[in-house]
Amino acid sequence: MKDDYDGPILEIEDLSISFFTRLREIPAVMDFSVRVRPGEAVGLVGESGCGKSTVALGVMQDLGKNGRIVGGSIKFKGRNLNKMSQEELRHIRGSEIAMIYQEPMASLNPAMKISKQLMEVPMIHKGVSKEEAYERALQVVTDVKLPDPKRILDSYPHQLSGGQQQRIVIALALMAEPALLILDEPTTALDVTVEAAVVQLVKELGEKYGTSMLFISHNLGLVLETCDRICVMYSGEAVETGSIEDVFDKMQHPYTQALFRSIPLPGADKNARPLVAIPGNFPLPHERPPGCNFGPRCDYFEEGRCDAMDRIPMEDVPGDDRHRSRCLKFKEIDWNAPLVSTSTNEKSEPGKVVLKMDNLKKYYEVAANALFGSSGEKKVVKANETLSFEARESETLAIVGESGCGKSTFAKVLMGLETATDGQILLDNRNIESTPIEKRDTQTVADVQMVFQNPFDTLNPSMTVGRQIMRALEIFEHGNSDEERRQEMLRLLDLVKLPRAFAERMPRQLSGGQKQRVGIARAFAGGARIVVADEPVSALDVSVQAAVTDLLMEIQREQKTTLLFISHDLSIVRYLSDRVMVMYLGHVVELGTTDQVFAPPYHPYTEALLSAVPIADTHVEKTHIVLEGDIPSAMNPPSGCPFQTRCRWKDKVPGGLCDKEVPPVRVMAGGHQIKCHLADTEFDAMEPVIKIAAE
Amino acid sequence: MGLFILRRVGVMLLTAFCLTFIVFVMTNLYPNLEKLAKSEGNFRMTDIEVATWLSNNGYRSPLDDQLLADLNAGRITQAEASEQVNTGFDPRIFRNYAEWLGVYPGWTRVDRDGNQRGRCILPGSDPAEAPTFCGVLQGHWGWSTVSKAPVTEALGTRMGNTGFLMLCVMLLMIPSALIVGVLAGMREGSALDRTLSTFSITTTATPEYVSGVLFIAIFTSSAVGLKWFKGTATSAMENPNFENFFLPVLTIALYGMGYIARMTRASMAEVMTAQYIRTARLKGVSFGNIVMKHALRNALIAPFTVIMLQFPWLLNGVVIVETLFQYKGVGWELVRAAGNNDIEMLLAISVVSVFVVLVTQLISDIGYVYLNPRISVT
After folding, report:
1. Distance from the Cα of residue A400 to its chain's centroid
2. Phi/psi of residue B189, nearest 5 degrees
3. How large is the ipTM?
4. Segments in B233-371 forming alpha helices (H)
5. What is the pLDDT of residue A4?
6. Which terminus has fewer CB within 10 Å in chain A: N or C?
7. Is there a contact between B274 and A103 if contact means CB atoms under 8 Å apart?
């Protein structure tokens, strides 16, 4: 059925999708139109709940029992998918339209070998023999650049790493050479360097096979790197569509503008140019305001006009190519007006040293054979290797690295959930490395607190918000009576800018950002002096991230807290941290001030990391460095330098030193530390990875 | 894998050891022994005579000589003497258990007639040829007082009968339960699901002693009813056929079937909402193939354990059904032994049950590894 159709591959016209519950009809997508031409990649961007995944499932006609298409049409190569029978759809799914999913592990059948899952596609759609299907599978697995394809084909999904699994899902989608590929947040679950490699691969394969793509993401930077056109969605509607250049540089909708202002782009700075969070919350699908959905949160809102009509129509932006905006006022707004800087903050000076790590080591012994406990030989996982650094009062130290680099282990040791194997942790010159949390005195526990990554799981679901904060106060022996603690709790709610009425609410009634605020209030309940923030905003939506980050910064400024900010997101690290520590496989590979780390000379790993981060700015030019392979297992680390297996500079070091010795820590200008064998001349010759093109 | 099985077998033996000791203590409580003494000896024995008989036959420690002398000399009355007999804990129980296991030499003594008697000397055999040890480890399971035969002999045929019954139950129960569960679970909430779920809930909610009686009334009654089957399975022991054997099998199978079907349904329904099923659907796989190739193996992982755990429960049903249908298997024998205080037989049956339970657990663990590639024991 690969015909010579040359019209648009996918045409969605005024699509409306609703979910039906017992109570009411919930419109998830309204009046949505998009057109994908052959070979074109269209990005669909929006926050969670804006309906972007629903559009994708709508195209696949797989909305489940409750979802139904209530209006409009979806035409694939000119044929209306809405009117097709199940049998016809089955022929299109997998062969003409394929989908790549967010969680590769969950998307692959755990009890079926990879080869079988791949071979199924051509066997169903082309009726080929087993041998042919196997040949095809082998070829596609080679195409997605997996090493040792035969072994991969013979394994089960759980035997592969996350990046490899995602490549298999991509291979699955490419088996039948589809005309349209739908990618639903394909890299959200992956590490940045793996993400960069996967994105690169998708782009290459798209060109090779001439596939059109519908790329769904919440990450504007990623869309910039992969797509030709973009469609921004808000609360079930497309609010702006156009080419990447038009939307990124000449945006014509207030939401797009607000979105760009709330993400940390190079040049944003927590003191001079703080991020502007979008005020208010995302409207629930059944509580949408009349008129413009973005109205209540919009700076340009005009009462009696923006909320006068039922629905704002989409209008063409004159002069641009297929650039449309859903705003009544876009012709009146001066889009080039500089952002009225709402506030600049004074830079706070770091005070005395509060926390000092000296050659901290944490090894885990893992029985080779977990089921039998004592039998079998022991393996040692070196989670942290000789960690040394200092953190000062009211300083933000960012700890950066991909999963498995040991950053969470370090946090556990600091918190006292684990005890150190060797070395010392000095808190106000007291050793705490071998005191587990149960044995720490109340003051130490209250001093070192943590904000967790996932606000959805870290609040007790059956206790009111106020009660949880008061419980923390009780543990920290704060206040003499319940009444005193109650007052303190209300003060904490004010501190994190939550209404006092929230004290009586249950966690399930709060949004993600609000829950994270409760988490912050709890961490600061005992007047914490060191707060470990473990990826505090990575589970939140873009527009909420800015607000929560700002809040953390503000509390830090007021309370002179030392903030250890653990993150893999280099944009946010660059925005808010004073100093940055880059970790790889338990080693600190680079440590310095933010400016030092983000400018050459780099450690080769930092260089790759910086290049991998997608930046949502068309003026930025990046050097593309794609790391090959996966992070080695900490159970079986490479000899010599931990990064040598993936380093592109390795051959510049004479005598194979990288294979033999762990590099020494080199102190560069201004106390900048790099753990690398490279010669000084090589470091001096390094080019910056990110360049901002002059306008 | 070998090591894993070895360890599991070790744990199994330890469990068996503990469980049999508990059963041994329970069956050797004084009231049980008193009943035994009276039925073996004579029903008009006095308390002192009972105690003497028990000590002569190795069940309890010998009576206090002073007490006997006092009684014989008439210094105390019969009633006073019986009050002084130890009816509580007797340390001899440990030695008895060791003898029963076969790790301690069996007791021997010479009775008043000068005959050598002992645990290992069977009535009518030559004492000189009797072995020193005779316990379960040596294959001596004791003497069944009801069957008047060695326990091994009496229980052997019973076990054969029950084994055949269980096999038929499994053959009927497992496939139908899985089919019902998969059919119900593949489209959650459909009319088919509702119907099958109602059916399986009804069957699990009806214990064998209710369904068995109902079936007999409906299908076998000679006065009213359908007269399709026979109300007794006695003839099935020699010549099992559909008419005389189906009802007992169905009675046991129905009860377990509902439970397994419910588990399979829940597991299937969960698997059908998994993302990899969506992947398969959007790959263009037909619904039949999704169920057969993608969902089934994943959906069977949970019920497999349940099926294996169902074996011990079947033993329950076996007792009721065998008694109800007069089918002479282990369950029927258990009831008879319990009713007639056949201690050795009770012990043997409990050992058998313990092993059935433990072996099924082992099989369930090993089978789990094969079904679920994510779990590895090596």
Report:
1. 14
2. 85, -5
3. 0.73
4. 242-272, 275-282, 287-289, 296-324, 330-339, 343-371
5. 61
6. C
7. no
Between chain A and chain B, how many beta carbons pairs sit less than 8 Å apart? Answer: 80
* Residue A11 identity: E
And the tokens for A101? 């999913």
Residues of A in contact with B286 (CB under 8 A): 90, 124
For residue A52, CA distances in Å to A49, A217, A486, B372 come to 8, 8, 42, 35
Mean pLDDT of A473-500: 84
For A127, A355, A381, A406, B363, the CA distances from A409, given in Å and listed in that order, are 51, 17, 11, 5, 39
For residues B293, B298, B302 and B305, what is the CA-based torsion angle, rounded to 10 degrees?
70
Give the per-residue pLDDT at A341: 60
Q: What is the pLDDT of residue A1?
A: 43
| Chain B touched by A150 (CB under 8 Å) | no
User: Which of B278, B372, B378 lies closest to A62 in CB terms?
Assistant: B278
Please tell me if residue B191 touches chain A, with a CB cutoff of 8 Å.
no
Q: Computed over its alpha carbons, how large is the radius of gyration of chain B?
A: 27
Helix (H, G, I), strand (E, B) or coil at A153: helix
A633-678 pLDDT, tens digit per residue, is: 777 778 888 888 888 887 777 777 788 888 888 888 778 888 888 8
Question: Nearest-CA distance from A155 to chain B in Å?
Answer: 10
Return d(Cα A147, Cα A271) in angstroms, integer: 46
A278's tokens: 């979008």
Cβ proximity of A499 and A489 under 8 Å = no
Nearest residue of chain B to residue A102 (CA atoms): B275
CB of A650 closer than 8 Å to CB of A644: yes
Residue A304: exposure state from Cβ atoms within 10 A (0-12, 13-18, ≥19): exposed
The Cα of B333 is separated from the nearest Cα of chain A by a number of Å equal to 40
Largest pairwise CA distance in chain A: 80
CA–CA separation, B114 vs A420, rounded Å? 78
CA–chain centroid gap for A174, Å, is: 25
Give B144's contacts (C-beta < 8 A, 6+ positions apart).
Answer: B150, B151, B154, B155, B337, B342, B344, B345
Question: What is d(CA A294, CA B204) in angstroms, rounded to the nearest whole number?
Answer: 55
Closest CA to B174 of B298, B265, B271, B304: B304
Q: What are the structure tokens assigned to A20, written together?
A: 């039906």
The pLDDT tens digits for A495-528 are 888 888 888 888 888 877 888 888 888 888 888 8
Task: Supply the DSSP symbol for A673.
Answer: E
Angle of helix A162-174 relative to helix A130-143, nearest 10 degrees, comes to: 130
Q: Name the β-bridge partners of A477.
A: none
How far is residue B185's CA from residue B264's CA, in Å, rounded to a whole number? 7
DSSP string for residues in A338-399: PP------PPPPP-SEEEEEEEEEEEEEEESSGGGTTSS-EEEEEEEEEEEEEEETT-EEEE
- Helices in A361-511 by DSSP H: which ranges? 407-415, 442-447, 465-475, 482-495
Closest CA to B140 of B95, B90, B103, B91: B103
Portion 317-346 of B in contact with A at CB < 8 A: none
CA distance A124 to A91: 9
